[in-house]
Amino acid sequence: MYGDIFFEISGICNAKCPWCVTKSPFVESKHPSDKVTPKKARFIPVETFERAINRLIDIGIIGATTCIHLYNWGEPLIHPQFEEILTVLHEKELAFAISTNASKSVKVAHHLLAHLKQFTISMPGFSQAAYDRIHGFQFDKIQRNIDVLLETFKSADMIRITYHIYQFNLGEIKAAKQFCLEKGVEFSPYAAFPVDYNLSLAYLNDALSYETLKKLSKDLLLYYIDDTVTAAPTDYICPQHNHYLTIDEYCNLLTCCVVTKEHPDYYAMGSLFNLSYDEIRKQKVSQAICKECLQSGLAYWVHNPLILEC
Ligand code: SF4
Ligand code: SF4
Description:
Order of helices and strands: EHEHEEHHEHEHHHHEHHH
Bound molecules: iron/sulfur cluster
Distance between the termini: 36 Å
CATH topology: TIM Barrel
CATH class: Alpha Beta
Helix content: 25-40%
CATH architecture: Alpha-Beta Barrel
Number of domains: 1
Number of helices: 12
Radius of gyration: 19 Å
Structural class: alpha/beta
Strand content: 5-15%
Strand order of the largest sheet: 6-5-4-3-2-1-7
Number of strands: 7
């Protein structure tokens, strides 16, 4: 049984974050001709989600100690049948977690949230200028939405705001922390990083174009990365190998949570409906891309982002 499943109920995110796997215009492949044509991002149909959950229970992937995170890099609250998705989990008494960019305020029947473990709101700064650079939303509307969302999801065991630190929002950390204090939620700041396997690996391999590196160096904190990668234990085990699984909105088991849909290895594992528990375990630790990733220190970096004491 896995402790955590990241299940992309919405393959779509309405934010415009340039360093996200869903939006990055900077994908640089060594072999562009190897790219696959991905299926169009979509919202998972409720009946497909229910069938997938039943399958995961039947083969022993999920159970009473698993938390189903209703996201990978999509925005779950824009799923048009969000309450129906929650109903599927509620009927099976499964624990779940939500992470949102707070672009949409929703109200949900209270009883559906009985097993909500975590509610997370991500913020790319604390000003309209920061939102203009990353999420692309109206900051005043986001703040109003947060009030509604904190009321809706107040029964969660843990509520936090993850503050993604960029160079340009360092001066806004204090205001964001104060905001969290006033709302009574946990403040969780960490350095934003490119959530894109190709891009991050190209950075580590000094293979980025000058233009991309220039853009990256204007947005992200980069000073700590060499030290982090150097500190990676030689026997480091990627948590995606033994602790959690990521599933997309077509029920594909992902080789890695930060691989783009265009990457030739994106579909390497295949559908959860075709694999047994043992096959999933075996395939998860034997993916070709993992070897280079572990050797480069990338796996250690993406699972150990810089956390600043604020
Ligand atoms: S980083 Fe998060 S909020 Fe931004 S585009 Fe990606 S999934 Fe959406
Ligand atoms: S080792 Fe790297 S490529 Fe493999 S699952 Fe972990 S982060 Fe992804």
